Structure formats: C-alpha cells, structure tokens
Amino acid sequence: MKLSWTPYDLRLNHRFTISGFSRTTTPIVLTKIEYDGLEGYGEASLPPYLGETQASVIEFLRKVDLSSFPDPTHIGEIVSYVDGIAPRNTAAKASVDIALHDLVGKMIEAPGYKMYGLDKTAVPDTTFTIGIDRDEMVREKTREALGRFNILKVKVGGDDDKRIIETIRSVTDLPLAVDANQGWHDWHEALDMIFWMKEQGVVMVEQPMPKLDLDNIARLTEVSPLPIFADESVQRLSDVERLKGVFSGINIKLMKCTGMHEAWKMRKLAETLGMKVMMGCMTETSCAISAAAQLYAGMDFADLDGALLIGNDCFEGAKLENGKIIPSDLPGIGVKPVEGLVFWQ
Ligand code: MG
Q1: Which of 60, 99, 115, 236 is the most buried (most CB within 10 A)?
Q2: How many domains does the chain have?
Q3: Is the pTM higher than 0.90?
Q4: Mean pLDDT, residues 14-34 taken together
C-alpha cells in the first residue's frame, strides 16, 4: 500500500460564524492509498479551532508506514497501528481510515454501507446550517434552503438567540435543530430557553453548555423537553460511556474520532447504552461526507451539509435527495475526484 497526500483549501459559500469564530475558508488534506491498481481516497478537514493544520497532518502522514501490512482488508489492525503513532491528530488519522475503507470497498466491490449491513436510503434528513448573521442574511440563507431541506440547524449561544429563531420563523415553519456550541452558561436560563424554543418548533439541542460542565448539563438534560446532544464534549470511543445520563445522545464526527472504524464502534456503544446518535461533519468535500454517509442509516439526526457549504468541492459522491444525503452506488465510500481540481503531489 502506498499512501500519498495533497493539501487543498475549501472556499466557503458564506462567511461562517459560530459562537466565537468566523471564517471564509477551511484547509484540508486529501489522501490516497494505492494498492493492486486500485485507489482509495480520504480527507482530513481542519477547522482552525480544533488545532490540526495542513502541516501537522502532513507531518503525521509522513510517519505512517503501511508497507508492513500485506492485506488492506485488516482494517482494525491497520487503524490501531495508525492511532498508536502519536496522540491526538484525529483528522490526520481519519484521512487514512477513510482512504483505507474506500480501497477495501473497491477490492471487494461493495459500497461502505453494505460492508456495515445498512440500507443506504433508511437515513434521517440532514440539517442545513444557518450561521449567526444579520437578519437579512439569515432570511436569505433560510430562503435558499427552502424546498431542498426538511430541517434546518441554527447556531445559537449568543445574545440574540430568540431574534435569530424569530427571523427564521418569519420565513419558514420547518423543524429546527439548534447548536449552542457551549454558549449558554447557566442551566436554569438554558432550560427556559429550551422550553421557549420547543414552542418555536425546535426538535433538538446540541452542546448547550461548556464541554466540561457535565454536572450542570446532566441537570439540564434530566428536565429538558428536548433531547440534548454532546458535540464538543465527545471526541472518541473512550468518551462515550461517561456521557450516559449526562446527554441524551452524541454527535459523531469522523474528524473527531479518527474515522469510520471508530465511528461505528461509538455508534454501537451509544445505542447499547440507550443513547441517541447523530452523524455530524465539518466543512468537508464530498469525500469525507460520503464516508460519513455510509454509516448513518438508522441514526436519529444528521448534520451532513458540509460539502453543500463550499464552492470548490473536488469530489462527486453522496448527493442531496429530498433533504437526505444519499451515498452513490459506487464501491467504497462511493466517490470520484472531479477532474482537474486535485493535483496530487
Ligand atoms: Mg456542534
């Protein structure tokens, strides 16, 4: 197996603002594993607040030596070796895991969802994110989403939460998911807000309070009329068990958890613990989105709009159909590079 990579910069269609951050591009690194005439593709997406960079990913990938693994189908063994190379670097690790899944799917001529025994159409609607913005921009972004999506996601956690919900409500009655990105600090006030939001047609709440404030989040979840999902509070498999009784569910993202192999384990463990699960994403090309789309059949919620928010997607893969992201029928993660956009180095 030969691993190669190339950095790439994603252009966002709209300036993206969440509680505390604002940006117009996202750096990524694309990976490729070649074996026996086949190519598997992967991706590391690197939003700046998570700490990995194109340089750190490339430095990590230089340490990955797949030459001692004669059989790519031994995915568990290989990703466990990759995980052991250095701590953290979760997006870099995911870029290898995704490329490996793509390669193995091509070797056995099966799409990823079949490798995991899933029905590719039995998936939840994806949310489409409306960022924090001026009222007119919020209305415009909301109108852009109408007819394409069945649920919207609203970034809250600032001082204007009610106004942004009311602004969206002036355009549409679609169900809303809200993500406070740790922005609420008092659980009583958060609970009042959640009761108000439920009346406005909000159906779930993501990361209401700071990620380590688990006692207060548990108090909130216990009495909340809406399910409360962990995002910043959950990274990897080892985080899941301690969140039982704290959150109603977890938001699994390939870039946080080192890829598809561990994402699947997180999902199974959460379900065993009686927790809800959702699949999320960063701003990513259709490469990483298509990888996530292989694994989310039967989940409670999905936030897989990442590739729809960028102007220079360099892969074709899973597509938006009737508000759901549906994988292609191609093997592996089901993607094709868009010709002329990726220049492998
Ligand atoms: Mg979130």
Answers
A1: 99
A2: 2
A3: yes
A4: 83
